[in-house]
Amino acid sequence: MSDFFKDIYENQAQAYETMVSYEDFQGNILPALEKIRPLSDLQVVELGAGTGRLTALIAPFARYIRAYDISAHMLSVTAEKMSRSGLSNWETQVADNRSLPAEDNSADLAIAGWSLGHSVGWYPDRWRQEIGLALAEMRRALRPRGTIIILETLGTGRTDPLPPTEGLAEFYQWLETRHGFSRTWIRTDYRFESARQAAELTGFFFG
């Protein structure tokens, strides 16, 4: 499964972008972020930005957002999308979550969407160390009283929140018990025109 997702992020960015454009049709993500930390005028660093789903949500409110991802292929979609937005308060840069080019004490918000959890599968014997490095980088980049937000999945094809794997359940508990995070959950349902369209657009990712 590790190589499966890596291949998608390295080679299928547009298919991924098309798929996630159908998710969260009710628009629950942005209000949830605003409830945790109002986005207006914030300096933001984003880890694992991918094709810029969160980048595009946050940029209209933030003072500036720096979107990082290890995949130049994914970030090319982000840059193209943000260029079309007419906004200029953003930049993209290829970077590993564990070694960010952000300056110390330079951000009010550090956010990672659907990115850190992959380390549980990619590094099953040392995911705590690997994710710990990313958390340390987020904290280093933050100013005093800064905020970290991590978005991860609590199940696909479910109406109640439940981590889809034992490893992710352990990861989420580790964030709460060892690092002081608190959990909230929202639904980010997909809406397609038909079951056929759903199968065509999601099959490469979900099977």
Model description:
- The longest helix is centred in the middle third of the chain and has 15 residues, at 127-141.
- It contains 9 helices and 5 strands, in the order H-H-H-E-H-E-H-E-E-H-H-E-H-H.
- It has a 5-stranded parallel β-sheet with strand order 3-2-1-4-5.
- 44% of the residues lie in helices and 16% in strands.
- The radius of gyration is 16 Å and the shape is globular.
- It has 207 residues and is of the alpha/beta class.
- The protein has helices spanning 2-11, 13-20, 29-36, 53-58, 72-85, 118-122, 127-141, 166-179, 195-206, and strands at 43-47, 64-69, 90-94, 107-113, 142-151.
- The mean pLDDT is 96.
Summarize the structure.
The chain is of the alpha/beta class.
Helix vs. strand class: alpha/beta
Report strand %: 15-25%
Please state how the strands of the largest beta sheet are arranged side by side.
3-2-1-4-5
Order of helices and strands: HHHEHEHEEHHEHH
How many E strands?
Answer: 5
Q: How would the global form be characterised?
A: globular
Spatial gap, N to C terminus: 12 Å
Tell me roughly what share of residues is in helical segments: 40-55%
Radius of gyration, taken over Cα atoms and rounded to an integer in Å: 16 Å
Give the count of helical stretches. Answer: 9
Main sheet characteristics: 5 strands, parallel
Task: Return the average pLDDT rounded to an integer.
Answer: 96
Poorly predicted tracts of residues: none
